[in-house]
Design a protein that fits this description.
The complex is a heterodimer of chains A (about 80) and B (about 240). With about 80 residues, chain A is an alpha+beta fold. Chain A is built from two helices and three strands; from the N terminus they run βαβαβ. In chain B, about 20% of the residues lie in helices and about 25% in strands. In chain B, the strands form two sheets. A nine-stranded mixed sheet of chain B has the order 2-1-3-4-11-10-9-6-7, sandwiched between helices. Chain B has a two-stranded antiparallel sheet with strand order 5-8. Classes of the chains: A alpha+beta (about 80), B alpha/beta (about 240).
């Protein structure tokens, strides 16, 4: 199964990179842009007997290593192809 | 007093700590490799600065799973002293031995400069030889040193007086311009509730001799040595 994991900074955690990117977009005239947050995207292949077991394992991986619960939230998508 | 300094792949200040402890302060030091189990008697373990595992994923995120860390956690839980400097502080936060996290500097730049620090609490082995309000001068050198914790954690830190060092100006005021990285409440170093684990972003090992511009870092190491002299905690 193919998994896409999105890790983002929690609300309230400063995101100076996001702010700098947003300012750059404004400089280029994209003034409609607001609240830009910079995150991480991970893509991986996983072997699992079922979608449920894959979900449980991915959640474990995120809690343990891929995201830091103090500063980050995560969500993921699983596709079976 | 027996010190252990842990080398992770990518540590680069481990030998500076060893040199400071041995040559400047005459301490007994053993260098420990991150892949080994923690064996031997130590009074204080130091997690040095550097870029363990290339800072991949998050600073300290991988080092936290190095085999030696199991022993470090046990050592800390049994009351052993653990000091994390810079990347060592990041590893201690990632491992849950200290609350909060260290994120990208608010100015986005890597900062490398001397800073003034104010000693906030002295009832810890790390600061017991220092005076409350005393100013120390040491360098910082990091890209991810902005201390963050949620409001509840900050409140706990305040209540338990766990903030041991703050960035201040030359007059001892914790101003915004004295804060090199945007850390909440100008926090430069914190300890755990049991007061035996201490993490700080500034580098005491780079301020261990007047030849380097300051020997205030040596004062911090000597505080630990003085607090622990004559006491050897065993760890199997």
């Amino acid at each position: 199964m193919r998994v896409k994991i999105f890790v983002s900074l929690k609300n309230g955690v400063l995101d100076p990179q996001g702010k700098a990117i947003e300012r750059s977009l404004h400089t280029f005239g994209y003034n409609e842009v607001r609240d830009l947050r910079m995150g991480k995207f991970l893509e991986l292949e996983v072997d699992a007997p079922s979608r449920e077991s894959a979900e449980a394992r991915i959640r474990e991986m995120c809690d343990k290593l891929l995201a830091n619960p103090v500063i980050e939230d995560y969500r993921f998508e699983i596709s079976s192809d | 007093m027996r010190w252990g300094v842990i080398t992770f792949p990518g540590s680069c200040d481990d030998h500076d700590v060893v040199d400071c402890l041995k040559s400047d302060l005459g301490q007994k030091v053993k260098v420990l490799w991150h892949k080994d189990e923690l064996v031997g008697n130590f009074d204080c373990l130091v997690l040095p600065g550097g870029f363990s595992y290339g800072d991949y994923l998050r600073c300290g995120a991988m080092a936290r799973f190095s085999p030696i860390m199991r022993g470090v956690v046990k050592f800390a839980q049994s009351g052993g002293l653990v000091l994390g400097v810079c990347n060592g502080f990041q590893i201690l936060c990632e491992s849950g031995l200290l609350p909060g996290a260290l994120v990208r500097n608010s100015g986005l730049q890597f900062v490398c400069q001397p800073v003034h620090l104010r000693v906030e609490e002295t009832d810890t082995p790390f600061t017991s030889s220092l005076k409350k309000g005393q100013l120390l001068r040491m360098p910082v050198k990091h890209g991810e040193g902005c201390y963050y914790a949620d409001p509840k954690t900050l409140e706990t830190l305040r209540k338990n007086r766990q903030v041991l060092l703050r960035y201040v100006d030359a007059k001892g005021k914790p101003t915004a311009s004295a804060n090199p990285n945007g850390s909440l409440e100008n926090i430069a170093g914190i300890c755990n509730q049991a007061r035996n684990v201490f993490g700080l972003m500034p580098h005491p090992e780079d301020a261990c001799s007047t030849l380097l511009g300051s020997d205030d870092g040596a004062k911090l190491f000597m505080s630990i040595a003085t607090a622990r002299s004559g006491r050897v905690s065993s760890h199997a």
